[in-house]
Amino acid sequence: MSVDISSYRDQHFKGSRSEQERLLNQSTTLYIGNMSFFTTEEQLYELFGKVGEVKKIIMGLDKFKRTPCGFCFVEYYQRDDAENAMRYINGTRLDDRIIRTDWDAGFVEGRQYGRGKSGGQVRDEYRTDFDSGRGGYGKIVQQKLQTPEF
Amino acid sequence: LIHFIKRALMMSHHRRKRGYDDDEGGGGYRTKKRRTNEHMEIEDRLESLILRVGEKSTSSLESNLEGLASVLEADLSTYKSKILKILVECAMKLPDKCTIYTTLIGLLNTKNYNFGGECVELLVKSTKDALKSFRWSDARFLLRFMSDLVNCHVVSAGSLLQLLDNFVDAALEEGVPQVRRDWFAYTVLSALPWVGRELYEKKESELDRMLGSLEGYIKRRKKIHHNALRVFKSDHPHPQEEYLDCLWQQIKRLRSDMWIEKHIIRPYLAFDSTLSEALQHNLPSLVPPPHHPSTLYPLPTVIFRMFDYTDCPEGPILPGQHSIERWLIEEQLRHILMSNHLERKECAAQLLSYPLKNKIPLEYIIVEVMFGEIFRLPNPLCLEIAYGSILIELCKLQPSTMPQVLAQATELLYERLDGMNKTCFDRLVNWFSYHLSNFQFRWSWDDWEDALTQDPEEPKAKFIREVLLKCLRLSYHQRVVEIVPETFAVFLPDKPSPNFKYAANGQFAGSVEVRASEHLIAAIKRKCTSEEVLALLKQELDPPMAEEDMEDNVCNPVKIEVFTQTLLFLGQKSFSHSFAAIAKFYSVLKSLGNTEEAQICILRSVVDLWKSHQQMLVVLIDKLLKTQIVECAAVANWVFSKEMVPEFSKCYIWEIVHLTIRKMNKHVAKLQKDATEARKAIEYSDSDSSDSEDESRGRRKTKPAERPTEDQVEKLEDKLEAAQADQKNLFLIIFQRFIMILSEHLVRCDTDAVDFKTPWFHWTVGRLHQIFMLHHEQVEKYSTTLETLLFTQDLDPNILDVFHQFVALRM
User: Fold this and answer.
1) pTM for this one?
2) pLDDT tens by residue, B535-591
3) Dihedral sign for Cα atoms in the order A37, B403, B231, B779
């Protein structure tokens, strides 16, 4: 079912698994992934506003640069609206990219920062493809490219 | 499948037997529990078997039905009531499998006459219950089901006709709303494709008589509501028929074809010899429950048409608009849509798996049905994005055909924009921009060159402009510039940027106001308080006056404008920045906006600053309403003010109007809920009589701690009354303003001897109509007031008609 919680669990969550699951099942907050670094809050309001009144949007930021790093949280006033976002927005395009929506246990200060070593998201550390909307190559690949070959 | 069924049930039979043996002589409770669990397991298995019959199988449908009937026959003694319940549920919720389940019941009836009788009784009872609880679809499908049972020799034709006659009588009843009568007429007609032939063969004269009565009713009734629901004004090239008229024409055509229809799959035909041996039952009497003033009947609809057979490529022919096949297909597709709309991928797959897809141009019919739903008036049944995302899934599943059909549909709709309902126009703008955003905004804009030479208020020119504005919101300005040919530059939206009147190096440099703004910016950056801001504004911008002369209520527009624009200019980076700014200096804005005039001044300041960024305007005004810095009535009056005339026909203005009305409606609804709950809580605790009686009825007596006081409840009820007065007032303002500007226009055109049907006129009437449509449930509450105060008989019919059409929706 498109509104079911996924298998992802936040490793930094302060509480038990079952507590996290309880929160996920009653949450009105969604995590949005695979965004372009250039996608704006305005674009998010427009798309996510199509299923209901958006309460708040929190852009995901690079921990060091404090610039958007390709994810965000969208919070609704009603659970119903968040469910409809899961049904109708998950897997469709925003800014020409297919975005993914998933339940979030609730925003806590600090969660707006990427957890990758370089400051962005973890996935951008390890990926090997070139993604012009997400800073080009993954961070490790970028470093390798800069290292002179002996 | 038969082997599987038999084995599955035999296994559970064995397990049951073992249970008895094991527990001989003791463990009574455990035996009972195991028996109950096994009982439930078997019930679940039976339910599964029944639900799944008719699905893809290696065996034929007929052999599956035969097998299932034998299996169920064996279980009738123990599981009869469960089986009956399941079958009735199937009748109500699986109308596309109607003939499968009627055949099943037909076969069971031959094996067990009493069971057939109990089935029939439960069906009639369920229909009565459905009618009493206003489950209109359930009732309609049940009637169809019972009609089809005549084909299976379970029900006698005569007793069915008796029931149908009772429904026809309900359609002919005087002094009740037409929407009620229409529903009964429609329900009878919608059963005839299944049973028409049989009734024709067995009871031709009674059938004719019944149809005669229906025809008389359908022709005589009023159709004032029709124009309110049309997507297109004109009936060329395709008529926008009223739903009952259309079905009547389709049934008439079926009748002239001797009731022979080849579309419905009828498994009972294969069992005709067996079934005709059966004894039939007479349907117990069913008289529809009488009308009650509080009953809400389904609203009438219009049948949306955009394709005819000439639009489809070589191949299977699109059934004509008055063929019963067209109706049957659309019924089924709509049912698939409404049953699966919560799972868009499954929905698309189901739509494309339509059983007879090779005989019809399926994509065209799906697209027509989908747009019919998107354009449905007064409101669609689902979120607009639900339809949009299902259409995208359809494109994914049929990439070689669906996108082309959608493109063709878009072209067709574009060509017909001139006569399109303005509410539907908005929906088309929303859908098309959303769809483009999922396909890299690729479109053959050049095909629409004709719009370049049009007056910008003409629908085609406006459509392109509004679509690009929406595309802007989903992307960014440079992207929109890149997606259209250079010739289309005239349609491009402005680049969103703040137009700050009090910029330090702007046109008012050196003025008192600009200096005040600069000081304000410095103070805000220093993290000053609201009090300090108010003091600064007073000191620098209030005219010098003796304290006694200073009236609190005199609005200082300059002060308001300087503050509002400066604050929002500082917050320009994003919506969140602006919201934070508003939150931080909420008390300043609240203090400045102490009258409606002052609030309108705030709105004007906001619009002047952000005119090129319509989306920002919408979210800011929404925020100002939410924080109650600005009242709904102020927004309404502001929209109709002279300053807003140039903006009046732009879509974003109406986005603002509708969100304003919705906020008011939500507010009233919440207070209603709170007041009703509080009143209930008191009422239960007031009744000091028999606690046990209350508890046995399941009512929880409110504990003293949570019980609100009479005083608190009255306060809530007062708040509710005040809110309802505000809501009524809001609608009165809006409607009154519409009447004023439309009347002025009509008078002016009359005086100048010019045609009043200008683009402005069409847009404005369209927007008036949209208020009625989008908020019909709320407006309905105030119809009498509106009729008495505003929409009086002396009003020009061009304006009055819109009101009458709206009222006719429920008459």
Assistant:
1) 0.92
2) 999 999 887 765 555 555 567 899 999 999 999 999 999 999 999 999 999 999 999
3) negative
Q: What does the alpha-carbon distance between residue A140 and residue B375 come to, in Å, rounded to a whole number?
A: 51
Residue B44: CB atoms within 10 A of its CB come to 11
Closest chain A residue to the Cα of B470, Cα to Cα: A46
Per-residue pLDDT reduced to its tens digit, B94-137: 999 999 999 999 999 999 999 999 999 999 999 999 999 999 99
First to last CA, chain A: 53
Q: Which residues of A, range 1-40, sit inside 8 Å of B by Cβ?
A: 1-3, 40
Do β-strands A100-104 and A29-33 pair in parallel, antiparallel, or remain unpaired? antiparallel
d(CA B116, CA B279): 9
CB contact under 8 A, B474 and A45: no
| Out of A40, A46, A88, closest to residue B386 by CB | A88
d(CA B802, CA B811): 15
Decide: residue B209, CB within 10 A, 0-12 exposed, 13-18 middle, 19+ buried. middle
Is the Cβ–Cβ distance between A57 and A124 less than 8 Å? no
Tokens 């219950």 -> residue: B129
Which among A84, A87, A95 has the least Cβ separation from residue B475?
Answer: A95
Q: What is the 3-state secondary structure (H, E, C) of B82-135?
A: HHHHHHHHHHHHCHHHHHHHHHHHHHHHHHCHHHHHHHHHHHHHHHHHHHHCCC
For A36, nearest residue in chain B (alpha carbons): B475
DSSP-derived letter for residue B269 is: G
Would you call B473 an interface residue with chain A, using a CB distance cutoff of 8 Å? yes
What ipTM was predicted for this assembly? 0.96
Chain B CB within 8 Å of residue A112 CB: no
- Secondary structure (DSSP) of B526-555: TT--HHHHHHHHHHHHSPP--GGG--TT--
CB B238 within 8 A of CB B70: no
- Is it true that the peptide bond before B543 is cis, omega within 30 degrees of 0? no
Helix (H, G, I), strand (E, B) or coil at B514: helix
B497 touches chain A (CB under 8 A): no
Q: With 0-12 CB in 10 A as exposed, 13-18 as middle and 19+ as buried, what is B14?
A: exposed
